[in-house]
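#struct-help
A.M.: can someone run this one for me? Single chain, 165 residues.
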Amino acid sequence: MAGGINGGVQYLKSAPGVLKILEIILQLACVGSVGYFWDHWAWKDLVKNDYIKVFLWSTAASGIITLLFFLIFLIGLHKKIKFLNWAKIAAAIFILLASLLFVVSGLLANTLIYYKDKEHCNALELSDADSQCKQLTAGIVSFLLNFFTFLSLLRYHFACAIYVD
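D.P.: on it. Structure tokens below:
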């Protein structure tokens, strides 16, 4: 079952297609801002740095999966492989991704608070370093916007999975 999701240009014009594009852009913003921070971060051996790495890997993997589903729906592969209910598969995968990203964004927020408490952020600002805590804040804000996009898409995928078939 295709799950009631159109392919091709119809998908691009639909709310799920637009939301999926927005989701990909926001994930790139998350990875870009936090990745820039990490790339220019001088103190890579500090406590909580693993949280930044987990956030980057999780967001990048989520972006790849999101892009894959976007391409599946765009080229109409979900209409050609009819024995799978793509709406249910997408809903299940995006519930897992939303949960994972919610947890790792909490870890990133915890890292930012820790760095602010330990005066690392002030030291970065005083030294005019390329890494600034503002980049972590931008990653968290991008994630929150992305999370609401995920929720909107989940609502659509659930509706398709329930009402079609």
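A.M.: thanks! The chain has one domain: 5-163.
D.P.: also worth noting: The helical segments are 9-13, 15-39, 49-75, 77-80, 86-117, 120-127, 133-163.
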